[in-house]
Amino acid sequence: MQRNAWNNQRIQTTLRxxxxxxxxxxxxxxxxxxxxxxxxxxxxIGRKTFYMYYFSLDSLLEEILESMAKE
Length: 71
Prior knowledge:
Layout: H1 3-28, H2 36-43, H3 47-53, H4 57-70
Helix pairs in contact: 1-2
C-alpha cells in the first residue's frame, strides 16, 4: 500500500471514530454536557488528534449537520 493511501485510510478511520463517538455520546447525554475529553476517551484518541481535525465540538457538530443536510 502506498504511503499516501495508508495515511488517507488512517485519517478516514480516525474521523469515523470521532463521528461514531460523538453519535454515541449524543445518545447518552445532552450536547452541552459533552466535553472534548469525553469524546476523545470514547474515540480512543488524544486531544491533539481531535484538534488536528476540529476547532471545537461546535465545529464537529456543524460538519455533521452540513453532511446530513446534503443527504
